[in-house]
Amino acid sequence: MSIHFLLFFKMSLFSSYSSSLSSSLTVWTKGFVVAITALCLLSVIPRVYDFLSVAPSEVVPPLVRLWKIVTASYVEKNFILAMLDVLVVVVCATGIDPVWGGPKLVEMLLVVNAVSIASAVLVYIGIFAMTSDINVLFTPFCGFSSGIVCLAVAYKQCFSQASVSLFSLKINVQALPLLLVLLYTCLHIVGVFPLAAPLLSLFGFLWGWSYLRFFQVRNGIKGDDTDEFSFDVFFPSPLRPFIRFVAPKVYVILRLLRLCPSRNRSFSLAPGTQDSIPKCIHFNHTHAHTQPYSLKQCAIGCSQLVLKRVRRRSDG
Fold it and tell me: Which residue, among 40, 42, 20, has the nearest Cα to 87 in the 3D structure?
């Protein structure tokens, strides 16, 4: 029953967009859909499932079967869920393709899914270190939940003001990623899904947002530094002040660990304001850069600015 509810939930989240979006898919998206469909069908065979799914012990020495980090996301034990995953990719791609292009969509899914699987492996290894349960290392897991949540994050970036209908409720698209993570978590608590499902959905959310925020390059621009795509907007309003307080500190730690690049905020100058800035400070289209002028030069520049304003007022 819970699985059927999840199926209906996923279809309700994304089907409302399909009528307004183009039904054509790019070659890249078609190829990706065919590939993941083939993997899902082949994973019904037990030996193929064992070959494609991943267990934590298989990606560390002495085995080191690193291909499983890539393939495990495209394997589902439940055939209906597997086909629904394909449907979600198709429906979302019809909206994201015109904005990004097929290669960027496939690139995002491949990167985020692989990093999410690797992160889940590290969590399982940590669980083994704390519990000494050897079964944790040898139990295979798989699933496309990271891809589902990652697509929800991408949809929010492309259509930030859109909403979806669930029963009689309208849900803003920015709430979808966190809502999906909570849904996978609840279904794990009631025994429908293994631990891998909520883990992968959480990492799909975190790494999906991080990839789009800091790393994806589109039209010569790296990342998305807009306030509309900040991390706190995915959370309910009461939690946003706390997220705004914590997020910068986490970002600083990640920068120190070299896991995130440094970001330069953009400065938009209003027309006619360039002359109001002291000459010791120069702005370009990407960031503010302070030249290594001496204190005397800065003082002279500021005094010249004051005199210029006084003259304008006296002339007026």
Answer: 40
